[in-house]
Design goal:
Layout lengths: L5 H4 L5 H14 L18 H12 L12 H15 L14 H12 L5 E5 L6 H7 L3 E5 L2
């Protein structure tokens, strides 16, 4: 049997996913539920996004890309940041991730050493302390 690392053994169940699972059980039993737990929208993906995804698949965009993300996407992000906010970035300064939490987690893994303290302003997303702990840091919650 595979032996789990101590950092994994000490993880607590996600409060968000626990509430989400309970809401889904209620929904499946016919109870009308407004589920605000997991941040899932209550509407379908817009058609223009579905069509863009289908077009990308049809055009063979199914391969691995550079670690920081597609160059064309990073260039587009630079343009959008310049137009919307007046920021001037180069594609080399942009890192595309699967989401903000993944970006934060990657950052924590890259910079924390065992025992480093990380200040987390409250209120915060429920998973932030666990992310710090997995990276062997010590979360310090700061009330706001």
């Amino acid at each position: 049997m595979i032996k789990l690392a101590e950092r994994v053994k000490n993880l607590k169940p996600s409060a968000t996913l626990t509430v989400d699972a309970k809401a889904n059980v209620l929904k499946e039993s016919g109870v009308e539920v407004i589920n605000l737990s997991a941040g899932e929208p209550d509407f379908d993906t817009p058609d223009y996004i579905k069509e863009a995804a289908k077009k990308a698949l049809d055009n063979g965009m199914t391969k691995y890309v550079a670690i920081p993300g597609l160059l064309s996407l990073r260039k587009a992000i630079c343009e959008r940041l310049k137009i919307d906010y007046g920021f001037n970035y180069t594609p080399e300064e942009i890192l595309v991730t699967t989401g903000a939490k993944q970006a934060i987690f990657n950052f924590l893994l890259a910079v924390l050493n065992k025992g480093d303290e990380v200040l987390i302003l409250s209120p915060y997303w429920v998973s932030y302390p666990a992310m710090v702990e997995i990276a062997e840091g010590i979360p310090k919650i700061i009330p706001s």
